[in-house]
Amino acid sequence: MEVRDASNAKDVKYYTTDRLREEFHIANLFTKDNIRMVYSHTDRIIVIGMMPVMATLKLEAGKELAADYFLERRELGCINIGGKGVITIDGEEFEMNPRDGIYIGRGHKDLKFKSVDEKDPAKFYITSCPAHTEYPTVKIDITKARKVPCGSVEDCNKRVINQYIHPEVMKSCQLAMGLTELEVGSNWNTMPCHTHDRRMEV
After folding, report:
1. Is 151 inside a domain boundary?
2. Which residues have a Cβ under 8 Å from the Cβ of 192 and sit 6 or more positions away?
3. Which domain holds residue 134?
4. Residues 25-35: b if buried by 16+ CB within 10 A, e if exposed
5. What is the largest CA-CA distance in the chain?
6. Residue 168 falls within a domain, yes or no?
7. Is 37 among the domain residues?
8. Total number of domains in the chain
């Protein structure tokens, strides 16, 4: 697990391009049969990329969490942005089609991830944050996500924000998670770059 310190906004303006990439860019998030984890001290968020091809990958707590298992004091959200996959949560299997999402609440101990077809592997994009209580696991396919149309054809940023983990869809402690899909002919998301006072974003 890679650990990154928080950055002061007054200092960031003096960063070089290379330093900005070092602090804020996550490279090689999806590699064959590997779990890539980045822990940020900002909101103690953890970003995870998994691409199981031949292997079944098990999510475990590293020494950085000082926990017996990954979700002992955390919750997580996952969106499959690859081929078909399966997530097994304490023995219960959830089929994850492309663009399916799932919320897994605090307290689950055994989390396993695998692909259905090694030639078209699943890519599990995961975010996790601390949780103060338990909420039930919820599978959310993209049709059940809250849809927020944004942008315009003229600005080349016409898009739909699919909000999977959102208060109008399901309950979570702190985590919110979504997937932005650009319309045909659009090529960028939100500009100018900005921050939020109420939360951080990955």
Report:
1. no
2. none
3. 2-141
4. eeeebbeeeeb
5. 52
6. no
7. yes
8. 1
Q: What is the pTM of this model?
A: 0.92
140-145 long-range Cβ contacts below 8 angstroms, 24+ apart: 140/100, 140/101, 140/102, 140/103, 140/164, 140/165, 140/169, 140/170, 141/97, 141/99, 141/100, 141/101, 142/99, 142/100, 142/101, 142/179, 144/169, 145/101, 145/169, 145/178, 145/179
In a domain, 192, yes or no: no
* Listed range (16-25, 58-67, 173-182, 183-192) with the worst mean pLDDT: 183-192
pLDDT (average), residues 173-178:
94
Q: What is the CATH number of the domain that holds 44?
A: 2.60.120.10
Contacts of residue 47, Cβ cutoff 8 Å, sequence gap at least 6: 26, 29, 37, 38, 40, 126, 127, 202
Which candidate, 32, 35, 50, places its Cα nearest to that of 119?
32
b/e string for 82-101 if b means 16 or more Cβ within 10 A? Answer: bbbbbbebeeeeeebebbbb
Range from 21-25, 112-116, 129-133 carrying the lowest mean pLDDT: 21-25
